[in-house]
Amino acid sequence: REVSGSLLVQTGLLRCRVPEIHREFRLLLAIVESEGNEHFKSIACQAVIDYWWFFGHMPWHTRTHRVWQLSYVMSYGAVLWIVRYGMEEDGLDFLSITYWRIFAALLSLLFVFCAFDIWEEVCQCIGYHGAGFLWHYLSDWWNWVEFVTVGFSTLTLFMLMQAWESGHVSPLVRRILAAMIFWRWIHMTNHYVTGTTLGPVVLPILKASGEIRGFFFVVGICLMAFISGYLAIVQESALWLVFFSAYRTAIFGEGSLVALEDEAAVESTGVHNKFFDEVRALPFENAFMSAFAFCLGVILMNIFIAVLSINYEREYKLAWTSFMQTRANATADTVAGTRGRAILSRMFCKTRPPKPEVDSDQGPSYLWVACEATVLDATDCYGD
User: Fold this and answer.
1) Which end of the chain has fewer CB atoms at under 10 Å, N or C?
2) Dihedral through CA 230, CA 232, CA 233, CA 238, nearest 10?
3) Keywords on this record (predicted)?
4) How many CB atoms lie within 10 A of CB 48?
5) How many CA atoms lie within 13 A of 344 on its CB side?
6) Are 321 and 255 in contact (CB under 8 A)?
7) How many CB atoms lie within 10 A of CB 364?
8) Which residues have CB under 8 Å from 307's CB, separation 6+?
């Protein structure tokens, strides 16, 4: 209420009810699509997210999906075990017919996993399209990560099937399998951030690490300067050997580019000139490598730790709002997939039409949101 140019809020319990608004799926999508995370601090927004979280059976769905993804990764691990221990050392044939059959069964299981992933993405796309939020689905960068993951899984399965038919696992297939297993383990973190146990703890770490791209750019420039200088000094070693060795030296300080035992012995021309002989025999390559490794490994890494600590402190204060935002995204994807499956079932299956809702004396349902008026900003409250 506006009195003499100022806004006054009556202390007490404020309650608001809008009939059936919480049942509108587009309201949840509008919350997810909103930029920033300030609105996730409001109790009303969190109430809508909690309603859809339990309405979509998300506790059961998340547990099932975690077990499913863990089984997916373990299936790849079993394939790796067969490739490593179930084949001859030269990789030309299976050791026994049992390994060959187990490998075929694992490929069939991976085919089911891959087909399920494709089905889920198609249902989500149809569900978002039916709600009028297809552009939100296509513009979400994490969905593109899912697209790449599904495509890479399909490629890996195709390569493994060719290896099963030929009985030979080439080095290329081994590298693709290694990259697939590595990415699948990393990808599993996305399925654990929606839980109340790990979500508020893991999300600040992930978000703090994601905001240091500028620092990595500076480190990359310094590293390329180091590699360019060392390529000009060392002419005998191969390009990729120098590149990766320089990276290990700069980051981990191994100092393995030029071994000290391979250095030429100092040839002394006299007893009194030994000091000057050692000065003239200074290993310039090792000096250059050591100086730059100190600058990059000590100075820049300490700056990296400081920047990461500041980002983590800021993200830790927003841990709960980030957790609610992540939970809202996961809920929207799940509900969209459910709606997409319902749309497909109505298109291809003959089902009974839904029964019309019968009006009752109780009236429509409401989602009640209550909070103390003292926690609200005066600029957010309006009255007659």
Assistant:
1) C
2) 70
3) Membrane, Transmembrane, Transmembrane helix
4) 22
5) 14
6) no
7) 13
8) 212, 215
Residue type, 358: V
List the one residue out of 309, 50, 32, 10 whose CA is nearest residue 143. Answer: 32
Residue 192 burial (C-beta neighbours within 10 Å; 0-12, 13-18, 19+): middle
What's the gap between Cα 69 and its chain centre? 14
Which residue is listed with tokens 């004396």? 361
For residue 166, give the amino acid letter.
Answer: S
For residues 249 and 256, give the distance between their C-alpha atoms in angstroms, rounded to a whole number: 7
For residue 360, what pLDDT band results from cuts at 50, 70 and 90? Answer: very low
The model scores a pTM over 0.90: no
The amino acid sitting at 231 is: L
What is d(CA 286, CA 233) in angstroms, rounded to the nearest whole number? 11
